[in-house]
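Internal ticket #5521
Category: modeling
Description: The requester needs a full-assembly model to guide mutagenesis choices. All entity lines are attached below as received. Residue total reported by intake: 460.
Assigned to: D.W.
Attached entities:
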Amino acid sequence: MTTGLYELLFKGLWVTLQLTVFSAVLAALIAFAAGLARLSRFWIVRFVSGVYVEFFRGTSALVLMFWLFFALPLLGWQLAALWAGTLALGLSYGAYGSEVVRGAIRAVPAAQREAALALSFTPWQRMWLVILPQAVPEMVPPFCNLLIELLKGTALASVLGIGELAFGAQLVRLATGQSAQVYGIILVMYFVVAFLITRGMRLLERRAKASVGRVPQRDRTTAKRVPPGAVGPGVGTIGGGAR
Amino acid sequence: MKTWDWSYTGHVLPDLLRGLLVTLEATALGSVLAFLLGLVWALALRTPTRWVRWPVGAVVEFIRNTPLLVQLFFLFYVLPTAGITFSPLTTGVIGLGLHYSTYTAEVYRAGIDGVPVGQWEAATALSLPRRRTWIAVILPQAIRRVVPALGNYVIAMFKDTPMLAAITVLDMLKQAEEAGAESFRYTEPITVVGLLFVLIAYPTSLLMRALERRLGN
């Protein structure tokens, strides 16, 4: 492979990182909004966010991406490929993330909420000053897993013709025919990025726990992976941190 | 232009349902492979020799942290150069099974860890051979409690099967794409495919949740 072709891969890596960051920000916003909405006092708010979450956890991210790119224009909106990809990833991983937010908030001991009530905090203060600071550190490990799933999901954007890493690899493969080498290289690239994310999130977890006076457990395997959208182990068992 | 054409929807539906069969077939075969391979990984990660544990652990981590789509491309384009040719569907099943086996390995691990120590001690006290301890005592209890978690991975895999369209498997998405390419109308086929996914995945996930409650874990 020539340097020009390597450059193509690095350009692809850059787009992959951009796509990951954009959709992660969107997914985080949606996750908090939908997660909090599912704990709302009003049934209609709970219902609407429940429908959103179940729908987007139920459908396939790739089909959603196709739909936003090919079907939506016929209904009158044309999205640029990059934004269709970002939107699809943000919407589906936001739905998964909302379950994490909901689980972590519900895992905060009821006594904390009651104490805040007794001190006549407003609902806003209760959430912002008492509940969330304790819930957020518990969200970090599952969010880390989701972020890696999201990073893997960005490869789907290559089918829309977005010039990210998998797409770059396809171009290089067509140019050189060295499939094993090209795909081997980009698999390693994805792995390195995922590794860096895991390390970064572990640091963040330690910091977040320290800020509310907790020590992260030493032997904790933060890398325990949960299927995106699964109700299996992990998502439901968030409240396991050392108190 | 009409926004939604029902007669066209009826026209593409048989093709989409044919694609659905392929999708379900890939999911079923992929699951079987993932269940078996995952168990192999989980057991290999418990062997006393680090010369088995370490390489298996590294490979599992690598596969789990890299995109399935790229792995599918790898299998699809690289295996033939090594002289191994499978049909696209077989390649897809291998890719799906291999990828998800790294997740099921983790599920089995949790299940095996969840078996009470007393069970191991009882097996030792009865001087059961190692193989029999695993097959008759530990695994039946471990697998029973992880069935819902395994089911969730089957749902996740089902939602990932549209990726097989990228390696020319005629699954639901590919059928929708071809129908769209023929008529320049993508709205109906792709919407129907998306809805079919929800229609199948959501009830199944409810079933898994019920199962989880029943098994009490």
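Resolution: model delivered.
Comment from assignee: Chain B has a mean pLDDT of 92.
Ticket closed.
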